[in-house]
Amino acid sequence: MNFHKIKHFYKFCHLISLYLYNKYNESAGVIMYRLFFNGNEGEEKIMCVEAIKEINEKYNDYNQMPDAAQYLLKRLNISTVPTPIVKIVQEAGFSVRRQQFKNESLSGIIAIDEELKSTLGSSKIISVNNQDNLGHQRFTIAHEFAHYIFDFDRAKSITYYDTYCTDDDFIEKPNEKRANFFAANLLMPADLFKKEFSEQVVPNDMYETTAKLAKIFQVSAAAVKIRLDELGLSVSG
Length: 237
Prior knowledge:
It is a single chain. 57% of the residues lie in helices and 10% in strands. By secondary structure, the protein is α+β, with helices and mostly antiparallel strands. It has 2 domains: 3-187, no CATH class; 189-237. Helix 10 packs across helix 11.
């Protein structure tokens, strides 16, 4: 999907989501949105902006993503879970939106463009698919935030558009793998994840262990399983 298609597609989806929100603003989905996606939108905080700049200068490689995520959490004085990912991106100036995408494999869109401010109220937007479970929506926000940190070349362009899809061909791209690894480390920091795993693990029961960890870190069960593999953790007794 090229730049112009993403831009027009996003505007179209946003108008549709506004209509649905105004019509069904007391739906269960909106109530859950208020619980998981609270806070003011798009208010930049100097500490967060400076931390992002420092991370961009220090880290870039896939294998550096654990250090990059830990650096950000430390700079923002975040030491507990679940990681307040919506608050973090809001402090970087982003507005977070939820809407339904026709393509089920499309999990999210990031859009940075001053032209959006006059019509959508923000020049920096992360939009997630409201048909995904809330844990995956949080992961999508972290994933798109990684693109903002590592892939948006501020020296060459003032605009940036990208999408996050979950089909196999897409997620195998190097920058997508890096964004996923950063997101995993930001939402499930290794030390805290290992600690919770040791306390919550149900021997020989992957389903129950995964469900408990997913609830604690507010991520999807699929994300927990991948994280277990990344950290070499097993439920086998």
